[in-house]
Amino acid sequence: MSRHIEAMVVWMSEQPLDTSRAYWIKHGTRYLHVNVEDVCWKMDLEKLEKTSVDQLRLNDIACLQLTTHRSLTFDPYHENRGTGAFILIDFMSNNTVGAGMIQDSFETTSHNIVLTQSSQLSTSEREQRLRQKGVCLSLYGERALSLAYALERKLFDMGQLPFVLKEGNAETCQTLIDAGLLVLRVNENEEAINSDDLSLDPNEAIEQLLHKLDNALK
Question: What's the pTM value of the predicted model, to 2 decimals?
Answer without folding.
Answer: 0.56
